[in-house]
Amino acid sequence: MPSKAKTGKKLVIVESPAKSKTIAKYLGEGFIVEASIGHIRDLPQPSELPAELKKTSVGKFAVDIEHDFKPYYVVSPDKKKKVTELKAALKDADELYLATDGDREGEAIAWHLLEVLKPKVPVYRMTFGEITKEAIQRAMGNLRDVDQDLVDAQETRRILDRLYGYEISPVLWRKVARGLSAGRVQSVVTRMVVDRERERMAFKAASYWDLTGQFGTDSGAASSFKAKLAAVDGAKVATGRDFNDDGELISKNVAHLNEELATSLAAGLQDAAFRVRSVDTKPYTRRPAAPFTTSTLQQEAGRKLRFSSKSTMQIAQRLYENGYITYMRTDSSALSDEAITAARRQASELYGPEYVPQSPRVYSNKAANAQEAHEAIRPAGDSFRTPAQVASQLSGDEFRLYELIWKRTVASQMGDAKGSTATIRLGAVASDGRDAEFSASGTVITFPGFLAAYEEGKDETRGDDDSDEARRLPNVAKDDALTAADIVAVGHETSPPPRYTEASLTAELEKRGIGRPSTYASTISTIQDRGYVRKQGSALVPSWIAFSVIRLLEQHFSDYVDYEFTADMEGDLDKIANGQEAGASWLRHFYFGEDSDPGLLSIVNNLGEIDAREINSIPITDEITLRVGKFGPYLESSAAVVDPKTGEIVESARANVPEDLAPDELTAAKAIELMETAAPEERVLGTDPHTGHTVVAKNGRYGAYVTEVIPEMTEEQIAAQPVEYYKNGKPKPPKKPVKAKPRTGSLFKSMTVESVTLDEALQLMSLPRALGEDAEGNLITVQNGRFGPYLKKGTDSRSIGSEEEIFTITLEQALEIYSQPKQRGARAAVPPLAEFGPDPVSEKNIVVKEGRFGPYITDGITNITVPRATSLEELTREQAVELLAEKRAKGPVKRTATRKAPAKKKATAKK
Q1: Cβ pair 839, 846 in contact under 8 A
Q2: End-to-end distance of the chain based on CA atoms, in angstroms?
Q3: Please, are residues 809 and 802 in contact by the beta-carbon 8 Å criterion?
Q4: CA dist 31 to 20, 91, 132, 486, Å?
Q5: CA distance linking residue 115 with residue 109, whole number of Å
Q6: Residue 726 catalytic?
Q7: Where are any strands of DSSP class E within 327-463?
Q8: Helix (H, G, I), strand (E, B), or coil: what is residue 310?
Q9: Residue 632 — very low, low, confident or very high, per pLDDT cuts 50/70/90?
C-alpha cells in the first residue's frame, strides 16, 4: 500500500474554541487548530450499556469491577459529530499535536483523543501555562508523550467517584428522599457546612462589659484619642476570647464585669485624675501576600469583587483562553524567572526603584497536598500589560479580575510595608478605690511598600476587633496628665462561629487538603444546586435535608465523610499521578477491602436496618421534634392533642418550618411560637347535603384547598357485594373496592382555611363550571388553574381577570372573549427581572424572566435556568452570555418519542 503523500499540515487539538482562536494567531501557516470542546467520551449510564454487558461485571457501574476496574467508555452522543470532524482533519495532517491543558483533566482529554482518533502520524503532547507567542514557542521546543501516570490518576478519580456515588446515593434515596446524591468531596464539604451550623445551634452566648473613654492632653482636640478598659485592680478585663462556646469563662485571673460593675466603675471615674502609665513603641513590618493560586484567587475574588467561586473560574477561563493570564488551575504560588523580572520591572516603573527589594521574593506553598506542577496565576507574557492597557479589550468583570491578578502579582515582588505601632497604657483610681487601666494602640505606616499596589482582604473572624487602626497617637510620656471625657460602660455578647462563605470554605478545604482547588468552584456550586446549601447574603446555610443526609452518612459511612480520610485519598491519588502506585490496585482495595479494612462493597452489603424516621428527626425541645418529610421540614409535637368536642386524643400537632429560617434560628422559643401560630392542618366545614360526605379545608404542599371525605366501605358492605366465581366453581374472595377519588378545589387567594365557608367549598368543588356551547356545539367551561382563572373550549384556553369571575361570568361574555384574536403572552407583560443587552451570538436582547420553575435567562431563542448557586443580584452579563453559550453548545434536548410498532404486513401468496 503506498504511503500517504505529505501535505505539510499539522493538526493541533485544544479543548475550547476560544483557546483555538488565540493559539492559531501564534502558530502561523501549516497549522490547523481545532477544539474538542471538552471531553469527547465518558462513562455511560449503566442503562445505556449494550444488552450483552448489562448482566456482566460491567453492568453496575459501566466499569469492569472484576477485571482491574477497566472502564467502558463511549463517545458522548453530542460529540459524535465533533469526532467525525476531527478524524477528517487528521486525514489531511502529517502530525498531530495534543495541546489540551497540562493538568490531570487535560492529560485525560488528550489520552481519550488519542484512543478515539487512532492517529497513524507522529503524535506530540504540547503544554503551556499561558497563551502568548513566547509560551507557544517554548512549548514547541518541549514536546513530550502523553503522561500515562497523570491519565491513570484522573481515570482512578473518575471511577472512584462513580463507585462512591452509585453505591451510597441509593441509600439516601431509600432513607431520606429521592433524587439526592452522595459524592466523595461533595458530601464532605456539605458536612463541613452542617458541622458549622451545629456549632452555632449549640452555642450559648456569654455577656461581658467594658469601658471606653475619650482622652487627651491640654494641647487641644487634635491630641484626643479613644482608649478601652484593659485591666481592673491589675486583672485583665475579660473579652470574648475568654469564654467557650458554652458561655463559660475559661480564662483564669481575669475580671469579668457585668452591667452593674461596669456602670458603677464608669461613674466612679468621671472625676478621676488620669495619667500615662507607659508608652511602648515597636517597629511594624508587613510582607506582601504570595501570587494567586486557584484557591486564593477564588477567596480574594469573593471578598473583594463579590464573585462566586464558579463565576471567578468562568471569568478566569476566558482571560486565560484569550491570552491575558496564565493557566488558572494551579496549586503553585511560584513565579517563573521571566514573570519575576516583569513584576519587578513594572513595580519600579510605576512606583519607583525604592519600592522593589534588592533580591527577588520566592514563595513556597503552605497548603496540604500542594502540587508544584504549575506556575502561579499571573498576567500573561514576559512583560505584563497594565489594567489600563487592556481595559478597552475586556468586559467589566474580566477587567476587575485581571486588575486583581495584576495588582497581586506586582505587589508580590515589592518591598515590605514599614512603620511603627505605639501602645499607650493610662489609668486612674475610681472613687470606690478600684484601679482602672485603659489601653490604646495605633499603627503609623511610614513606608507603604507593597501596600501602594495591593492589600489582601480578610474573612469574618470571631472575638473582639482589637486591630490597630492606622492612626497617630499623641506624643506623650510616662506620668503625663490626661483629660478624660465620655467614659461609658459598653455591653457585649460573645458571637457564634461565623458561617462559611465561599471564600472561607475554600480556604478551609485547602488547609485540610480536601479535594483539589480546581474542583472547589464546581463542588460548592453542586451542593447549592442539590439543595443541601443555600446562600443567605454571602453566608452558606445548610438545609434540613443536608442534616439528614450527613447524619445517615456519619452513622453508616463514617469513613467516607471523615475529613482526614478524604484528605488521605487525595494523597493516594497524588501517588498514582507520580507513578508511585497503580490505580487498579488502589481501587480494588477501596472497593473490595483488604484484611481489617472492609471496603465500600462490604459496608453497603452489611448496612443492616436504618431507621429512616430517626435519621430524619432532630429534637428541638423535649416535646417538639423537627422532621424532614417528603414535602419539606415540619415541626411535630409529642404532646397529646385533645379534641375539645369529643375529648379524644387526636393526631399530633404539626407546623411548617419557613424556608428562609436558618437552622440555628430554630430555637426552642421559635419552635413553640411556630406551633402556637400554625394554621390548622384540617378544618371541618360541614356536610354536603347532596352526598352526605364531610367537607374539610386543608393546608397542602401547593397551598390551601377543600375536599370531601369519602368513607371507606365497611366489612359488611364489602361482604354484600356480588360474589364472583373461579372457573372451577369456587367463590373468589371479596375484592377490595377501588377507592373513589374525592372532589377537591383550591382556595381563592382571598380565602383561608380559617375563613372559607361550606357554601364556598361546595362551589369550589363543583368546578369546572360549564357555561354552555358555542355555535359549532363546542362546550365552554371556566375553571381555576395554577396560573390563574381561565376559559377552555377544546384546546383553546383564554385567561380571565379574577378568580371571583369564575362564578359570575356568562356564556355571552365568554363568547365575546373568544371572538377576539388570541393575545399570546398578553398577561405576561411583566418587566424582566434583569436586562443585559444584546447577545454576541444571536444579537438579541438578553433578559432574565420569572418562569414556572424559577428565574431563567433568555435571548428569545435559547433559554437556561439561573443556577441555584447564583443569586440574581450576583448574576452578571458575562455569566449570562456564558450560560447561554454553554446551552447552545449542548444543543436541543433530545426527547424520546414513543413509537408505535409498525403494523404487520399481510402475507401474500407466492405465485
Answers
A1: yes
A2: 51
A3: no
A4: 11, 14, 16, 77
A5: 10
A6: no
A7: 417-429, 435-447
A8: helix
A9: confident
Task: Judge whether 503 and 302 are in contact, CB under 8 Å.
Answer: yes
- Cell match 479494612: residue? 597
Q: Which tens digits make up the pLDDT trace of 842-898?
A: 778 888 888 766 788 998 888 888 887 676 766 777 788 878 877 876 666 554 444
Location of C-alpha cell 487602626:
469
Question: Can you tell me the distance from the alpha carbon of 237 to that of 262, in angstroms, rounded to the nearest whole number?
Answer: 11
Query: What pLDDT score was predicted for residue 364?
Result: 76
pLDDT in tens, 573-622: 999 999 999 999 999 999 999 888 899 999 999 988 999 999 999 999 99
Q: ω before 768 within 30° of 0 (cis)?
A: yes
Q: What DSSP state is assigned to residue 640?
A: -
Which DSSP category does 783 fall into? E
Query: CA 858, CA 538: separation in Å to the nearest integer?
Result: 26
Residue type, 489: A
The H-or-E segment that residue 150 falls in is: helix 148-175
> Is the per-residue pLDDT at 373 higher than 70?
no
Name the residue among 516, 502, 423 with its Cα closest to residue 469.
423
Residue 685 and residue 765 in contact, taking contact as beta carbons nearer than 8 Å: no
- Of these ranges, 462-476, 519-533, 794-808, 823-837, the one predicted with the greatest mean pLDDT is 519-533
What is the C-alpha separation between 552 and 699, in angstroms, rounded? 30
Q: How far is CA 576 from CA 104, 419, 563, 822, in A?
A: 11, 49, 20, 65
Q: Name the grid cell of 298.
A: 477564588
Specify the long-range contacts of residues 173-179, CB closer than 8 Å, at least 24 apart: 174/612, 175/552, 175/610, 175/612, 175/615, 175/616, 176/545, 176/548, 176/549, 176/552, 176/612, 176/615, 176/616, 176/628, 177/545, 177/628, 177/630
Phi-psi region of 69 (alpha: psi -120 to 50; beta: other; left: phi over 0): left
Q: What is the DSSP string of 497-530?
A: PPPPBHHHHHHHHHHHT-S-HHHHHHHHHHHHHT
The helix (run of H) or strand (run of E) holding residue 136 is helix 133-140
C-alpha cell at position 249: 469563662
- How many Cβ atoms are within 10 Å of 743's Cβ, its own excluded? 19
DSSP labels, 798-821: EE-S-GGGGGT--HHHHHHHHHSP
DSSP-assigned states of every residue in 390-401: HGGGS-HHHHHH
Work out whether strand 274-286 and strand 481-493 pair parallel, antiparallel, or are unpaired: antiparallel
Cβ–Cβ under 8 Å, residues 859 and 846: yes
Angle at 828 between CA 825 and CA 831, to 5 degrees: 130
| Cα gap 625→170, rounded to integer Å | 26
Amino acid at 299: Q
**Rounded to an integer, what is the distance from CA 51 to the centroid of its chain?**
38
User: 186-202 and 502-512 are packed helices; what angle lies between their axes, rounded to 10 degrees?
Assistant: 110
* C-alpha to C-alpha distance for 498 and 459, rounded to whole angstroms: 10
**What amino acid occupies position 617?**
S
- Give the 3-state secondary structure of 261-303: HHHHHHHHCCCCCEEEEEEEEEEEEECCCCCECHHHHHHHHHH
- DSSP secondary-structure letter at 791? E
Q: 73, 327, 520, 560: which is the annotated catalytic residue?
A: 327
**C-alpha span between 128 and 140 (Å, rounded):** 9
Q: Residue 188 corresponds to which cell in the numbers above?
A: 464532605
CA 17 to chain centre: 27
Signed CA dihedral, 890, 892, 898, 903: sign only: negative
The reported pTM is 0.77
